[in-house]
Design the sequence.
């Protein structure tokens, strides 16, 4: 029997394509145009070729910001993914407790990013904040405004507090979608709790974990508001990540050409890492 | 379109990308691609190889710009060869 192909459904994608074109493709094209010009406004511009790219690629400050960005993203992924799975496994599955747990876990996700920064700014202060005061009680001279390690700890804790719920909720939905028969079979086989997790729950969570890892990587790689409010990128430049360097260049110094070149390099790095993540996970799944 | 600040090289670049996409879509419609394994460590479709080729070409160009003073058309020529090689044997 010949399979009939009907491609008419592609027309249904057209509205999405138009929206993406308007919100992403056209601005991206504009950024590419800006990246090869010394530009102040559309009427005052000079073609400079690849000069801005050379400048950006050789800029030591940006290299440092890139290294910090990778350390930050991989640190929070290493904490948030296992922690999110753990929280999801511990959440109640039935009754009023389940609804209450869902609401409580989701609360950090509902708070605007700049408010999260402000909350942790106060929370971490030794004089008026609970976390800062607790550290002081433990005899640690905790000061995220002057100690780079303390600033890092606070930024990482803040991100973990803010975004682990997303991973937890994704995993919770993934866990709820596992049919009961798998657990029945595991009980018949007298499988241990670890075996149930390793051979039933974890494989079934692969798809939601792919989404979780990609979302958290992209989001953390573009992080701006929370560290900006909390530490302002300091002390010194110890918590200045890529997006903050970019904003300083584009808005602070109004260097639109170099900032556009920087954005494109930034975009290519995100694209590369996400593609590597996605391909690796998809092929691991296929090999099974 | 003035606000987009077009230049001839960037317009040519995007026209090239658009042409490649149209050509690949037409090719796909006439001869649908199947996954296959070449010298790359993963199974790829034609579209995957195009994406890998374009992304790697972007990084090759950035490398040339950052690390050498060799004219950029040398990088472009190398990338065209690389793309042909990748699409056929990747």
Sequence:
């Amino acid at each position: 029997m010949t399979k009939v192909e009907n491609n008419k459904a592609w027309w249904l994608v057209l509205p999405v394509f138009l929206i993406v074109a308007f919100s992403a493709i056209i601005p991206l094209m504009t950024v590419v145009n800006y990246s090869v010009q010394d530009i102040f406004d559309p009427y005052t511009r000079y073609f400079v070729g690849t000069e801005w790219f050379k400048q950006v690629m050789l800029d030591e400050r940006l290299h440092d910001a890139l290294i910090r960005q990778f350390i930050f993203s991989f640190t929070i992924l290493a904490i948030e993914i296992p922690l999110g799975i753990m929280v999801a496994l511990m959440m109640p599955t039935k009754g009023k407790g389940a609804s209450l747990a869902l609401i409580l876990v989701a609360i950090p996700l509902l708070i605007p990013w700049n408010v999260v920064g402000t909350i942790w700014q106060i929370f971490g202060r030794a004089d008026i904040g609970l976390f800062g005061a607790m550290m002081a009680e433990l005899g640690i001279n905790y000061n995220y405004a002057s100690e780079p390690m303390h600033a890092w700890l606070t930024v990482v804790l803040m991100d973990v507090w803010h975004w682990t719920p997303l991973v937890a909720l994704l995993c919770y939905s993934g866990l709820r979608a596992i049919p009961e028969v798998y657990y029945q079979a595991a009980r018949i086989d007298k499988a241990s709790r670890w075996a149930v997790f390793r051979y039933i729950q974890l494989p079934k969570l692969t798809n939601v974990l792919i989404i979780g890892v990609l979302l958290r990587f992209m989001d953390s790689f573009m992080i701006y508001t929370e560290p900006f409010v909390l530490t302002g990128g300091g002390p010194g430049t110890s918590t200045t990540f890529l997006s903050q360097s970019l904003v300083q260049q584009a808005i602070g110094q109004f260097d639109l050409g170099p900032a556009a070149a920087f954005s494109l390099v930034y975009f290519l790095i995100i694209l590369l890492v996400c593609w590597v993540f996605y391909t690796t996970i998809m092929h691991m799944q296929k090999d099974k | 379109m003035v606000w987009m600040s077009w230049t001839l090289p960037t317009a040519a670049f995007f026209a090239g990308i658009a042409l490649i996409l149209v050509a690949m879509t037409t090719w796909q419609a006439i001869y649908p691609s199947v996954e296959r394994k070449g010298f790359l460590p993963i199974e790829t479709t034609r579209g995957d190889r195009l994406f890998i080729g374009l992304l790697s070409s972007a990084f090759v160009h950035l490398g040339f710009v950052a690390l050498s003073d060799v004219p950029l058309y040398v990088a472009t020529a190398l990338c065209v060869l690389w793309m042909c090689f990748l699409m056929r044997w990747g």
